[in-house]
Amino acid sequence: MDPFWSYGLMIAGGAGWTLALILAVIPVGIVLGLLGAAAKLSSWRVLRLGAETYTTFIRAMPELLVIFLVFFGGARAFNWLLAAVGFPEIQIDFNPFLAGVIALGVVQGAFATEVFRAALLAVPAGQIEAAQACGFSRWQTFRFVTLPQVWRLALPGLGNLLQILIKDTALISVVGLADIMRNAQIASGATKQPFTFLLLAAAVYLLFTTVATAVMMLLERRANHAWRRA
Amino acid sequence: MDFELIAEAWPDLLKGAGLTLQLLFLPLAVATVLSIPLAIARSSHRFWVRIGPAAYTFVFRGTPLLVQIFLIYYGIGQFESLREGFLWENILSNAYWCAMIAFTLNNLAYITELMRGGIQTVPHGEVEAARAYGMSGFQTYRLVILPRMWRTILPAYSNEVVFSLKATSLASVVTVLDLTGQAKVYYSQYYEPYDFFIAAGFLYLIMVFVITRVLKGIEWLLGADRRPVKHRGETPAAADVADPATGPAGPA
Amino acid sequence: MKKSLFGLAAASIIALSATAHAAPKEVRIGTEAAYAPFEFVDPSGKIVGFEVELGDAICAAAELKCVWSNVPFDALIPQLMEKKIDGIMSSMSITEKRQKSIDFTSKYFQVPNAFVAKKGTTIELTKEALKGKKVGVQSGTTNADYLKKYFDGAVEIVRYQTQEEVNMDLVNGRLDAMVVDSVIGTEWFKTEQGKNFALASPMLKDPVFGSGVGVGLRKGDAELKGAFEKGVAKVLADGTAQKLSQKWFGVDIYK
């Protein structure tokens, strides 16, 4: 096969890893974000302080540095932690993929914390008061009044985060995941056409971000459906 | 943590931090200046004026910065005609300047979109009023639209500066010994994953803190006329979220 | 019914572990596959190369089942220490510095290192002659240690993540020279990219380069070390290594 096509196919194959990474990070980011937002709005000082430290540090750190820390130091920290709680026999295999999920998940979580916090605060206080006046408990108020609205209010912010995430996945290539970017580098090194293959990689990423934008627009339209009718 | 190791690396880490700041401010300044005409063109009503900048921001905001840096650093090697002459000798042969170019182009795309948003929020009535006073198009932009735009975009602009600072760490993958690059070199000599990366992270934290404080100060100064009536703004992140006031409350 | 199902499951687990014992033990070998022709990724995504085939032969001789994983060079030793991999075969030289952290088997090959530059260049190995020159090396290698030890302050040492990137930048003209395994060099000169380059210095002799390439192992992993020693000795004695060298390099690097 012509090297252009064989390396082109290799880059396309890397898109599978990129997609898998994106899909694995999204739930981690959302869960961390919800926990972080809950902690920031909690009445316990310790929780607020912890969440504040988390978001301040992570949002100031370059993603690449977080990736290095997790990839090079994550296993040692985790194994030490597992041994400390009494499971020395468990060994976690910190391959580039897992390191990527953890590093990018932690980064996404810090930003998602801010998005969810703002969304929770954006639910009008009058609605909460009304719910309580109707005899709703705190949990019921949260479950039936606040939560359904948080999704709608948080969507635009989450859309931004998704764009950032897609582009950040390219950084995992630096620690060796055979994603789009890493394969484009291999092709660049093996042929005399670095520009061609890197441009191809750029095109694949552009496809990813464009599709993500379309999906988010669709979700936003659906989430706002009821509001437009009213 | 081994503080002796950190002490050994510290001078180099500081040197790296200095390079990081250069990689932040020079591209940022150039991009900010170039963004103004580009944003004006981007918000034009004429399709053919708008399409160029729109395509530019679409491509540069839709692809990873890492790809852009690699394209500029390794990609141009594919064109032998570029590998000689003045441009190569003085600029492209140098990793530092390649990173500068990549950061400038990347910042340009983001700041242009930011400014476009700012320009579009200027109420149309103000523009009409300026015209009614006999201001030329240039005067309208200089005296009415751009000052208002600045005040609108400043919180988002500060966010952009912080993102840009963190993005400079990518220069390390094309051999520039910025703060991240220095930490990486020490890591590969001692295989100590925590000491150097955490020390570097600490320095980034300080830089972010100082920069956001300064920009908050500027924001405060620019908002002088609005202060008595307006509460201090929410954190910029809140601006990303849809305005709750637009959602109709009450039963449908 | 339930009981018999449980019994079946238990039986199959026992059977599984029994077969696991009978079959050769699985050993995870880390390599940085960006070092053609020793180890590199082919277009189909497979890790191939001289050292990979030699490594497989060593494992077969040692009755081990080896699986290869691609790890950045400067992450190999930490990953070994953290038990993410069990062995290193990545043209990693046995040096005193590395022996502080890990163990090595006896060497399975040794190639000298040298400067590489544009054809027709001769590099004089003095600080004065190299002053202001840009010399590229892969980060974390003995080549980097060598430059730092003898030419720090005189030459500008440019460190790259992979050897591929050093090659690319030498071609691009951003570097005046690079320090590299001489075999990597001579193989690279045969390619379209490297045809205008040649060895530019005598072979470098220095303790910094260590005493050949061995399998990197965790300290105290005596069982694995014993097996690998046996494997290395066998492939060197029965001519497998020499044959592979002929196949990949066209010369016998063991002479």
From TrEMBL, chain A:
MF term (GO), any: transmembrane transporter activity
Membrane-related topology note: Multi-pass membrane protein
Listed GO CC annotations: ATP-binding cassette (ABC) transporter complex
Residue span, ABC transmembrane type-1 domain: 15-216
Transmembrane segments: 15-39, 60-82, 94-112, 153-177, 197-219
A Pfam match: BPD_transp_1
InterPro entries from the UniProt entry: AA_ABC_transptr_permease_3TM (IPR010065), ABC_transp_permease_HisMQ (IPR051613), MetI-like (IPR000515), MetI-like_sf (IPR035906)
PROSITE patterns found in the cross-reference section: ABC_TM1
Keyword Transmembrane: yes
Keywords, alphabetical: Cell inner membrane, Cell membrane, Membrane, Transmembrane, Transmembrane helix, Transport
Subcellular location field: Cell inner membrane; Cell membrane
Entry similarity comment: Belongs to the binding-protein-dependent transport system permease family. HisMQ subfamily.
NCBIfam families: HEQRo_perm_3TM
Full protein name: His/Glu/Gln/Arg/opine family amino acid ABC transporter permease subunit
Organism: Novispirillum itersonii (Aquaspirillum itersonii)
From TrEMBL, chain B:
Segment forming the signal sequence: none
Region annotated Disordered, chain positions: 233-252
Gene Ontology biological process terms, A to Z: amino acid transport
Database matches in InterPro entries: AA_ABC_transptr_permease_3TM (IPR010065), ArtM/GltK/GlnP/TcyL/YhdX-like (IPR043429), MetI-like (IPR000515), MetI-like_sf (IPR035906)
Composition skew (Low complexity), residue ranges: 235-252
Segments passing through the bilayer: 20-41, 53-74, 94-111, 196-215
Domain ABC transmembrane type-1: 17-215
An example Gene Ontology CC term for this record: ATP-binding cassette (ABC) transporter complex
UniProt cross-references to Gene3D superfamilies, sorted A to Z: MetI-like
Main location: membrane
Cellular localisation: Cell inner membrane; Cell membrane
Keywords: Cell inner membrane, Cell membrane, Membrane, Transmembrane, Transmembrane helix, Transport
Molecular function as annotated in GO: transmembrane transporter activity
Similarity comment: family membership: Belongs to the binding-protein-dependent transport system permease family. HisMQ subfamily.
PANTHER family recorded: ARGININE ABC TRANSPORTER PERMEASE PROTEIN ARTM (PTHR30614:SF10), MEMBRANE COMPONENT OF AMINO ACID ABC TRANSPORTER (PTHR30614)
Alphabetized NCBIfam families for the sequence: HEQRo_perm_3TM
Protein name: Polar amino acid transport system permease protein
Organism of provenance: Novispirillum itersonii (Aquaspirillum itersonii)
UniProtKB/TrEMBL annotation, chain C:
GO cellular component: outer membrane-bounded periplasmic space
Signal peptide: 1-22
Cellular localisation: Periplasm
PROSITE patterns for the chain: SBP_BACTERIAL_3 (PS01039)
Keywords: Periplasm, Signal, Transport
Segments forming domain Solute-binding protein family 3/N-terminal: 26-252
Taxonomy, superkingdom: Bacteria
Protein name: Lysine-arginine-ornithine-binding protein
Gene source species: Novispirillum itersonii (Aquaspirillum itersonii)
